[in-house]
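Entry type: protein chain
Record version: 2
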Amino acid sequence: MASATYLSNPGVLINSVNLTDMCTSATVRNRAEALESTAFGSTSRSYVAGLFDQEIVLDLYMSYAATETYATLAALVGTVTTVKVATTDAALTTASATAPRFELVGTYLEELPVIDATLGELSTISITFRGGVLSTIVS
């Protein structure tokens, strides 16, 4: 059984704009491509790390108001930016070992769904920032 857990309520900063109040889901992935290094005579496959391929996936409520979702993201399509996701909103500015912040610098936003609407529901979008250099900030 887990000895330490936390109630997820992360903070989200995209291109220096805090969109925590618009975010409903945040996933930060740190992935290294697996390169096969198996040689003749081996009885099992072996792998080594190749290029890293990080990404941040966010689900956000859509808003067209100034400094909200659309206004923040529209100009970022096809460009690189910095995205920060922290375990709490406060950790966006003051991270610690128990409340880390993850920063993806030089990450690329390929697409932005500008309308994703269903009758009678709040409009939400899912976006993915890909590539860049991931850092874990703990102080």
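Comment: The chain has a mean pLDDT of 94.
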